[in-house]
Amino acid sequence: MIPHTPSESPPSNLAALAEDHYFNANPPPKDLQKHMELAKDFIEFHSKAGRRLVLVTSGGTTVPLEKQTVRFIDNFSAGTRGATSAEYFLEAGYAVLFLHRQFSLLPYSRHYSHATDCFLDFLREGPNGSVVARDEDAGKMLNVLRKYREARDKNMLLVLPFVSISDYLHELRGIAQLMKPLGPEGLLYLAAAVSDFFVPPERMSEHKIQSTDAVEAFNKKPSKPSASEEEETFDNFDSSPSVPRSKRLVVDLDPVPKFLKNLVEGWSPEGMIVSFKLETDPKILVHKAKYSLDRYQHHLVIGNLLSTRKWEVVFVSPGNPDKWIRIPQGGKLDDAKEAEKDEPLDPKSLPEQEPEAEIESLIIPAVAELHTKYIKTMEGKKLEA
Ligand code: PMT
């Protein structure tokens, strides 16, 4: 990998202006300060120990429609990629700062929390009124429990939640800036499913959006509708002309600024930055991943398709040929030699059930290897300078 050289200059004026505008207009989450203190202590602890540290972002970001939020737009992500990756990073010796969507999957507990069975189904009554794991589950549970306890007892895992897109961006910026002193040893692995659109605060209703005019009727004296109000009541321009315009909810969203440039150039200029690119159309995946790398000048884009994301991903990084990482179609790692096709699999050719093996068990060692090369290259550059 040829790492992009971190720029010494601050992000371009336009990006800096967009950043100021966004972060001033969108209030921080109420726990930001507390989270930053926890993150600072965690980062300093591992920095002193000379340990590599990864920020893993995970899960979907919500787009609130109201300031006192009753309704919001969400996306599909349950946080599987992030939570699973976090476990393999811990296994590879990294300290993990896990920034995740509240109530999405967490490392270790994921094996039971969102299972199709209720977690109580994994338990049975033991002797003297105790509760124990069912015999058939006990072996795996003990293994997971030991790994979880080890991570917790050695302070290797810090878990911080977010909910909305603006919470996420405030937290990401704060943590990335705190990671600056780690230099190239810091890794940012951005697996969260980040909203591309949002309602800017100046257009957001304070209270719950009403579906009837009962409140208006309560506030106003009833009066005969004016001619223009009558005209506005119905229109014939779409497929449901019988629904009065005043009763519809037309949602008008602005684009969320892309802060990857600010991240690369300003927030964490020496850390290795890995972003994910999610698409649904196999024909454009690699092109979009390359476009993202070119635009933001970071270090690795991992492309994945919604329908095949547990079977294959593609690594796109500067100076390297694209690298596909796949679970063999039997679903197990030792089923067959790794398929060598250089393009996306046909989703229809894949078995319906999920693979038994976890693709993150292949992704993380490959990322860690690139990280090692990145650190060496950056050290070499420092010696030359
Ligand atoms: O949770 P799972 O169900 O396991 O699913 C995992 C996943 C598919 C969500 C994950 O593997 C993944 O692809 N995550 C990234 C999804 C995403 O936001 O893709 P994107 O193409 O919209 O954005 C690409 C990159 O741009 C992201 O790394 C994001 O950090 C960044 N971005 C996106 C939007 C935005 N407004 N600003 C950004 O900086």
Structural commentary:
The relative contact order is 0.15. The chain is of the alpha/beta class. The chain is globular. The chain has two domains: 13-199 and 255-384, CoaB-like (Rossmann fold, 3-Layer(aba) Sandwich); 210-247, no CATH class. Strand 11 (272-279), helix 10 (285-296) and strand 12 form a beta-alpha-beta unit. The chain has an eight-stranded mixed β-sheet, sandwiched between helices. A two-stranded antiparallel ribbon has the order 2-3. Strands 5-6 form a two-stranded antiparallel ribbon. It is 36% helix and 16% strand. The longest helix is centred in the last third of the chain and has 25 residues, at 360-384. The protein has helices spanning 13-25, 32-48, 80-91, 110-113, 135-153, 165-179, 214-219, 227-233, 260-267, 285-296, 360-384; strands at 53-58, 63-64, 72-73, 95-101, 123-125, 131-133, 157-162, 186-190, 197-198, 254-255, 272-279, 300-305, 312-316, 323-326. Bound molecules: ligand PMT. Residues 77-81, 190-191, 193-194, 196, 256, 258-260, 275-278, 304, 309 line the site of ligand PMT. Residues 212-244, 326-357 are annotated as: Disordered.
